[in-house]
User: What shape does this take?
Amino acid sequence: VTADDIPGEKFVGKLINDTPVIVQEGHKACSMLDAICLIAADNEDIARRAAELIDIEVERLEAVFSVEDALKPEAPQIHQDGNIAAEIKIRHGNIEDGFAEADVIIENSYRLPSIDHAFMETEVAFAEPLENGLRIFVGSQNPYLERELAAKVLDLPEDKVVIIDVHAGGGFGGKDDSLVTLYCALLAWKSKRPVRMVWSRSESLRGHSKRHPMVIKARTGAALDGRLTAMQMQITADTGSYAHWGPAILKFASLGANGVYEIENARVDTKVVYTNNIMSGAMRAWGNQAVAFVVESQVDQIAKALNIHPLRFRWINAIRDDGTMISGQNPPPGVGARNTIEAAAKYFDIDLEKTDSYKNDGIGFASVMQGVNYHFGHEDSSEVRVEVGEDNVFEIYAATSDIGQGLEAEIRLLFCRALGNLAVDKTRWMPQSTATSPNAGSTGASRHTGTTGNAVWGAARKIRGQIQSVAAEMLGCSPDHVQVKGEDICSDTGEKVSLSEVLQEAKRSRIDLKASYKFVAPATTDLDENGQGFPVNQYSYETLVTKVDVKTDTGEVFVLEMDAFIDAGRIINPIGAAKQIEGGCVMGLGYALSEEFQMKEGLPLTDGLSTYLIPTALDAPGVINSHFVDHPIPFGYIGGRGLAEVVVVAPAPSIINAVASLTGTYVHRLPATPERVLDAVDTSRDVHEVIKGKKAK
Assistant: This one.
């Protein structure tokens, strides 16, 4: 299959349709991710032999592989409109006044790496032709979006394409690219035969988007009393060969420049830059992981300069319910920054009213927040339908993706609780098919707890009302006097029938017990030309305390213990939430210390997990403790918000701040490999010697 065989749209994209499904003859391939043609055969050996018989004539063009080179006036233009995909600016208060008020100003430059999602299961799809259509099985993160794109590429009505989402072995944003779906669909459509495509690890590493590498320059000011007075950032991000989600990701990341703090004066200038590297895209936390690392590094250094305990410094500046965020909005209800700081202080017996500094004992702090749900004016809704199966089990339909985060367990738990703690085995999570299930939206933005969770609760309330009506007839009372307590359906006078009896009576009476509910999250707005608006409708919060050991002769860092203090409203599934925290801590450890997707002139040097160093069980902390500030927030029925992303944001700054606690120096380039830790320590020693020498003179 070549581009000439595509019956419909030849370009796709998230925000800009700039990504070729297959590069057309005579057109430009912008990175080695681009497909030139697709081959299907009865087995892999035949397909590979066929590939060797294809001759491709290629004209080599001048390319750029760094944001610095791409921004030069003489740089080759990757796309027609130039090498800048987007520019974002935020203006809050008066930055000059903020620095004029500051008694201490810290200024640093940071480099954050490109990293891979490293999910366990690589990309897999199976497509089979139907009469006038196609059915595709795929482990994605958004079944309805997969359907929309496949229909556009095949030039079919959307109802002629059926996506069946299967449980995937991880995603973290990397199963959002859709390319394996489109390739498989095109091959099946042309061959009129079922096609299965499985990517090797090497193919996966070069075939999907990465976390955006960034260069960030930060300047932060504070007064002697510990108040942050100014924050200024210049963010330059490499979005690679195509825009993907880049402009939106960096807009979201730019909102994190003030962290969890109320800073009256802030200025952010962000550039999203095209290069000929593999494109960057969605990954857990949507750019906030990089910016939060910078904020927390800056904050820690200022606290040290002012000789204020780092946790107290964070507590002084943490935003409150009546505060103002960098976008000019008041925080969404349920602000939890101070809650998590106070919980950490209580657990570690730290008096936040004292001003003494912390000892250099290898303990690091980070306080972060993460916006959840869709942002920037995009409607965020989720729909769930519930029916009663032939075996009297409640069947829950919602076309979305459980990629390992525990969505199925949480949704079934919520439904059972809404019916008075019904046994979970009385529910069934139905196949996530666009042909049979309503659209519950994508798996991303930590949104399912707040959106799909509230949708299933709304559907369960309707089912409960129907049960009450049937039971009222059986008990001879009003539905208002019927209580649903799991298997027991009781009247106010103490009479009761079983749920099974009620369901059987409904069938005998031909009463169809089923309900649908669509939950729509509170509206947001896009940012105006100064970066002001109401872009996010909810945040989750964390303070992480990390203890490390550093071998100063080798630069090795060992993470010994992590204590995570989380405010995500009502915690629906404490066991599942704790596992999210543990996974997030280890994933964040990789970002801090070992992971970097390396390329040379656009070609991956990383071709497998033997060269891409994700943490193993041996690298994980011996102890990870989860502490929940568990309370309902005003958000729908259930009072909870997602925490899957906030837990990956705090580890890197907490670890590096702990390293600084022991060594006296901060690492400004991640990952903090042993070589970089040693370089930072040596540089710090040299600087101190020069300063001492000058003072001696």
